[in-house]
Amino acid sequence: MSAGTMDKVDLKALISATADAIAAHAEELTTLDQAIGDGDHGLNMKRGFEAVRAEADAFAAKPLPDALKAIGTKLVMTVGGASGPLFGTLFMALGKEISPETNRANLAAAFGKAIEAVAARGKSQVGQKTMLDVLQPVHEALLQGKTGAEITDAADSAADATVPMKALRGRASFLGDRSIGHMDAGARSTALLVRAVAETIEAHA
Amino acid sequence: MSNVGIVIVSHSPLVAEGTADMVRQMVGDEVPLAWCGGNGHGGLGTSVEAIMGAIDKAWSEAGVAILVDLGGAETNSEMAVEMIGEPRAQKIIVCNAPIVEGAVMAATEASGGASLREVVATAHELSPS
């Protein structure tokens, strides 16, 4: 991701890339969720991101803040699990905080606020084997001015780092120590989304 | 109706409907009652849209108490309350209580004309923490 303005961001391309990433990995996400959750994460996320893709033209016609809020609302209404409000809140809060002509500094600040909103929604914090464990290092990488590739690496490493963690929130927490040794499905889907967004922005920069 | 309304939100429509049956057996039609369950696509889960619809159906000016089963039902219910927004949101509370016992106890309390605060407190007494 190049620093400076991101006025070349093509929202339709971003929607397409994120929906493709989720669709391509839906079975993997479901398998991860079956190990320590209720096994619906892949299907739920795919349903939500396909619903967003179906209305990509309408979203892309809006200013960026409104588009992100509308995408978040769509995810809330279509995902059908706890991931709906959590990922929906991420996008809704991002839309609330981001400026129409966003730049790296604005994006990093908005992303930080969005993470706070997700933490509040899930009554969770970093270190509990959730999507927050990927969002936080991505935020730090954004603040540090890292490249898209570096941000993607940070997200992937952070998802991997959830493997030895013990789940303290969500369905996986019911398993206690047995949640150790499996990657958190929400952390994995978050890393997939980060990669899709970073690669799309780099390709269009 | 001036009694507090009760909304039951389960991942399973069978659990939600069965819980509602147990509530009805206890309080009849004295309490506005609605339930929802399932992800809206035939699977287990909870739907924000369905929860918002259930709140509308059980709406009372005295308020609405929501009983939920697992985490996603709670998160989706809180999201639904937020999307309904003020002024109604301040009269809707997601209870921290077991879904079946909580719904039956809360509805029984509500049927006597108790306030939302009293109804929720009755449900919370069932919770260990």
UniProtKB/TrEMBL annotation, chain A:
Pfam short name (any one): Dak2
GO molecular function terms listed in the Swiss-Prot or TrEMBL record: glycerone kinase activity
Top-level taxon of the source organism: Bacteria
An annotated GO BP: glycerol catabolic process
Domain DhaL, first and last residues per copy: 9-199
Keyword entries, A-Z: Kinase, Transferase
GO CC terms: cytosol
InterPro entries reported in the protein's UniProt record: DhaK_L_YcgS, DhaL_dom, DhaL_dom_sf, Dihydroxyacetone_Kinase
PROSITE patterns assigned to the protein according to its UniProt record, in alphabetical order: DHAL
Name of the protein: Dihydroxyacetone kinase-like protein
Organism from which the protein derives: Mesorhizobium tianshanense
TrEMBL record, chain B:
Enzyme class: transferase
A UniProt-annotated Pfam family: EIIA-man
Keywords, sorted A to Z: Kinase, Transferase
Self-association state and partner proteins as the record states: Homodimer. The dihydroxyacetone kinase complex is composed of a homodimer of DhaM, a homodimer of DhaK and the subunit DhaL.
CC terms in the record's Gene Ontology section: membrane
Keyword Kinase: yes
Record-linked InterPro entries: DhaM, DhaM_N, PTS_EIIA_man-typ, PTS_EIIA_man-typ_sf
Domain PTS EIIA type-4, residue spans: 3-129
Organism superkingdom: Bacteria
GO molecular function: phosphoenolpyruvate-glycerone phosphotransferase activity
GO biological process: glycerol catabolic process; phosphoenolpyruvate-dependent sugar phosphotransferase system
Lineage start: Bacteria, Pseudomonadati, Pseudomonadota, Alphaproteobacteria, Hyphomicrobiales
Recorded catalytic activity of this chain's protein: dihydroxyacetone + phosphoenolpyruvate = dihydroxyacetone phosphate + pyruvate
NCBIfam families for this protein: dha_pts
Keyword presence, Transferase: yes
Protein's name in the database: phosphoenolpyruvate--glycerone phosphotransferase
Function: Component of the dihydroxyacetone kinase complex, which is responsible for the phosphoenolpyruvate (PEP)-dependent phosphorylation of dihydroxyacetone. DhaM serves as the phosphoryl donor. Is phosphorylated by phosphoenolpyruvate in an EI- and HPr-dependent reaction, and a phosphorelay system on histidine residues finally leads to phosphoryl transfer to DhaL and dihydroxyacetone.
Enzyme Commission number(s): 2.7.1.121
